[in-house]
Amino acid sequence: MSKITVEELAALMKRAAGVTVSPQQLNDKPDTGFDVLGVDSLGLLGIVGELENEHGTPMPVDAERCKTPQQFLNLVNNTLMAGA
């Protein structure tokens, strides 16, 4: 399985949470909180759901509790790589 990139996360944030963030912004400040970026808990839940549908793999419960994009990417990518 492939890893989720910041580009893919930015697209998921737009599609599932309605929040527009550039991949460059996620790269430059990976530890900016989702709340600061405008993603609330329902938005993050939507992002997790989209990933589960796209990859056919359940994401860990902790994914919807991640506070930053970097924390989210680390957790999700570790999960995807473990299921590969």
UniProtKB/TrEMBL annotation:
Regions annotated as coiled coil: none
One family name in Pfam for this protein: PP-binding
Domain Carrier: 3-84
Protein name: Minimal PKS acyl carrier protein
Database matches in SUPFAM superfamilies: ACP-like
